[in-house]
Amino acid sequence: xxxxxxxxxxxxxxxxxxxxxxxxxxxxxxxxxxxxxxxxxxxxxxxxxxxxxxxxxxxxxxxxxxx
Length: 67
Prior knowledge:
By secondary structure, the chain is α+β, with helices and mostly antiparallel strands. The chain has one domain (2-60). It has one helix spanning 43-60; strands at residues 2-7, 25-30, 37-42. A three-stranded antiparallel beta sheet has the order 1-2-3. A hairpin with a 6-residue loop joins strand 2 (25-30) and strand 3. The longest helix has 18 residues, at 43-60. The mean pLDDT is 87.
């Protein structure tokens, strides 16, 4: 997996990226073997999903190496 941050004009899958927030950038999750964009998230949606993932990690009792 690789991550790219691109401007809105470089969205590869505009029909799957509803962004009502007016974000200037899009985060693309890219397959390193095929260079295919697997997922695109606006800044706000990415931040929201990261929060959900961190909450799930805490609920599972998984400890990060830095804690």
